[in-house]
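Good morning,

Attaching, inline, the backbone tokens for the sequence recovery test we're adding to the shared suite. The designed sequence is right after.
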């Protein structure tokens, strides 16, 4: 069923007392001239839902906290939020049905009690849904209540410029996902599957990159195929067997001609030669490990150099000082700029101090370099010790050979030389065998990675098939909803009488208005206030179709700021817009709520809506004296918009 969403009350706790506004009517107009605080009130409503908003100076200086009474789904909640910077991240929540104080909720998305989670669940939506781009490599960003609100609140600074921030390309994935969720054109299961597909795509890319790196290493080692390494290993094993057989044969030949003392010296010599061979293999292994560490250190040092160059480039770019606004080309030189704030947007400037991520990555790279350097030094020390031991072993072998030479003279010496040659051959064969066994282990890694990639690819293909199957089940509904929206939008545009519009529809991919065959964009807009009229036609068409779609999740609520301001003297358009809105809320009384902040209003429709009048003598924050028409500072002026 269509989700119920209604704002019943706004209460402001100011330094001079309370101000309270109720909204019992389906259509309420906040009427008054520019500067009386209408936008201030709407931005406070947004703030009350736990979102960031543009707060006017009067709110920051004179309002302690604000409270909302809202109906969302089956819940009736009281949300109270302080404007104090130290307290504003916590919202006090009360269940108005049970009259129970619930745990305080945080505006942080990941808190145990998150206001975003509470509002999303009240709307009938999960709070962990992600908006993922098709065929992407990331799971996507979470869909939050802030994204839902872009379909409910049309601020003044957007009403004659943009629709749901569609010109911000980085928001488009979320905007389309929210549209599909609200009208049932997608499901939570499909979004979960798409996020899993993108995660698998990222894992496949990482596995393929590692696979390619290992294969390159193996090619550099001289083996392009596993069979080559296996052949070389068999050859090394055969060489080892032949050397061992030769040693055994030489021992058998020496035994008859060697007395017990000579045999003891010979046994010592054999042990020494085996130790020497082992030490030689150890030295070869240390050399290989040192080479690998040196290569890896050079790669990390290159990453560190690249990071340094990026940081230096960022510092150079960060020092650019704008003399004029890059958007409207107005001069910025005479404007007072708070310390530590951006010259253009006046927000806290993170450029000079916020290098924590950069420093963290730099520290990580330097720590890696330090660790590898220490390992190389340790290996060098180990190598020196092994080489010293090998030299000692060599001296021992020479000593034993000398003594055996003295005892056996010419009769045994030739056999001893043969024995030494055989021992050396055995050591070399064993060293070569260990080398090829290590290479084969790398080929095992290649095989494992290849299997892993195939497994992930199979899982991704299955998920994509599941997505296509689930999406096919919704294709008929998609066509029906888009057709209904296009038909309603065209009828609304014609009923309002927007000049210059020959055809109107809803784009089936971007879900934006299509005017005269052109999708709404920065380049394809109607001039001036006609964009505002298009906005009213678009949003009213969405809620009209949602009203007729019982299983829609679209919250039937619109908060519109100052549509008439953009229309100026276009009285007929204004009257047509209000005629459309009054007709819409009267279709099913109690289902749709529209709150509009506006200046002058059509008198003939005065009986069709509730009106709250504001003046300079009685502004929205009525407990605080208004500075007067000439001294008023609007929100846009306060933040430099």
């Amino acid at each position: 069923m269509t989700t119920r969403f209604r704002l019943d009350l706004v209460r402001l706790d100011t330094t001079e007392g309370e101000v309270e506004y109720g909204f019992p009517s389906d259509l309420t107009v906040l009427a008054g001239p520019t500067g009386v605080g209408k936008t201030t009130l709407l931005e406070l409503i947004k703030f009350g839902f736990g979102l960031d908003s543009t707060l006017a100076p009067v709110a920051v200086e004179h309002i302690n906290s604000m409270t909302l009474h809202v109906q969302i789904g089956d819940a009736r909640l009281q949300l109270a939020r302080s404007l104090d910077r130290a307290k504003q991240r916590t919202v006090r929540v009360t269940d108005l049905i049970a009259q129970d104080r619930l745990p305080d909720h945080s505006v942080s998305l990941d808190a145990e009690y998150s206001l975003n989670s509470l509002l999303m669940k009240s709307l009938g939506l999960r709070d962990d849904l992600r908006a993922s781009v098709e065929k992407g490599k990331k799971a996507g960003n979470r869909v939050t209540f802030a994204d839902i609100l872009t379909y409910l609140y049309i601020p003044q600074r957007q009403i004659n410029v943009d629709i749901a921030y569609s010109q911000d390309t980085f928001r488009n994935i979320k905007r389309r996902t929210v549209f599909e969720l609200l009208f049932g054109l997608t499901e939570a299961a499909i979004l979960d599957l798409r996020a899993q597909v993108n995660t698998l795509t990222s894992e496949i890319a990482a596995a393929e990159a590692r696979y390619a790196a290992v294969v390159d290493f193996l090619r550099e080692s001289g083996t392009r195929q596993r069979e080559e390494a296996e052949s070389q290993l068999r050859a090394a094993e055969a060489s080892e067997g032949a050397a061992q057989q030769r040693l055994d044969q030489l021992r058998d030949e020496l035994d008859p001609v060697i007395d017990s003392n000579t045999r003891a010296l010979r046994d010592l010599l054999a042990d020494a030669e085996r130790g020497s061979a082992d030490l030689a293999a150890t030295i070869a292994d240390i050399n290989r490990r040192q080479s690998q560490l040196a290569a890896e250190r050079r790669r990390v040092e290159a990453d560190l150099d690249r990071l340094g160059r990026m940081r230096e480039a960022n510092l150079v770019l960060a020092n650019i000082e704008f003399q004029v606004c890059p958007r409207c080309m107005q001069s910025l030189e005479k404007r007072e700029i708070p310390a530590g704030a951006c010259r253009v947007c006046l927000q806290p400037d993170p450029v000079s101090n916020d290098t924590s991520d950069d420093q963290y990555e730099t520290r990580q790279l330097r720590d890696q370099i330090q660790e590898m350097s220490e390992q190389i030094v340790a290996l060098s020390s180990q190598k020196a010790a092994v080489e010293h031991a090998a030299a000692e072993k060599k001296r021992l072998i020479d000593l034993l050979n000398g003594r055996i030479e003295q005892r056996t003279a010419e009769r045994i010496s030739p056999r001893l030389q043969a024995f030494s040659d055989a021992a050396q051959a055995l050591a070399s064969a064993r060293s070569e065998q260990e080398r090829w066994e290590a290479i084969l282990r790398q080929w095992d890694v290649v095989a494992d990675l290849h299997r892993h990639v195939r497994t992930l690819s199979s899982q991704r293909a299955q998920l994509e098939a599941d997505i296509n199957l689930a999406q096919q089940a919704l294709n008929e509904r998609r066509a029906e909803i888009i057709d209904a929206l296009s038909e309603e939008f065209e009828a609304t545009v014609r009923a309002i009488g927007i000049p210059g519009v020959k055809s109107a529809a809803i784009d089936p991919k971007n879900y934006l208005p299509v005017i005269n065959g052109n999708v709404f964009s920065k380049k394809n807009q109607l001039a001036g206030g006609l964009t505002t009229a298009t906005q009213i036609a678009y949003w009213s068409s969405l809620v009209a179709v949602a009203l007729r779609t019982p299983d829609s999740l679209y919250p039937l609520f619109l908060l519109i700021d100052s549509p008439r301001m953009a229309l100026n003297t276009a009285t007929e358009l204004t009257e047509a817009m209000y005629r459309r809105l009054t007709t819409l809320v009267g279709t099913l009384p109690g289902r749709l709520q529209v709150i509009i902040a506006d200046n002058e209003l059509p008198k003939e429709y005065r009986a069709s809506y509730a009106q709250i009048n504001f003046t300079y003598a009685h502004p929205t924050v009525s407990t605080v004296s208004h500075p007067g028409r000439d001294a008023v500072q609007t929100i846009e002026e306060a933040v430099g918009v």
